[in-house]
Amino acid sequence: MVMLNIVLLFESNICVAGAINDCLKTEIGDKSGLEFYTDRENLLKAERISRSKSLTSKLKPISGRVKSPVEDKIRTLEIDDKKGKKYLKGTTGAVLYTLEDGTQVVFKPINSKWQSNYRAEVLAYEIDRLFGFNLVPETSVRRIKGKLGSVQIYKKRNKLITPRESELDKQSFFDFLIDNGDRNSSNFFVADQGNIVSIDHGTSFTGTGWSYRSFEERHQEIERFLKSTEGKIIIKNMREKNIKTLEKEVENYIGKKDAKRFIDRLQYILEYTTVR
Question: What is the pLDDT of residues 33-58, one digit of tens each?
Answer without folding.
Answer: 333 334 444 544 444 445 777 788 99
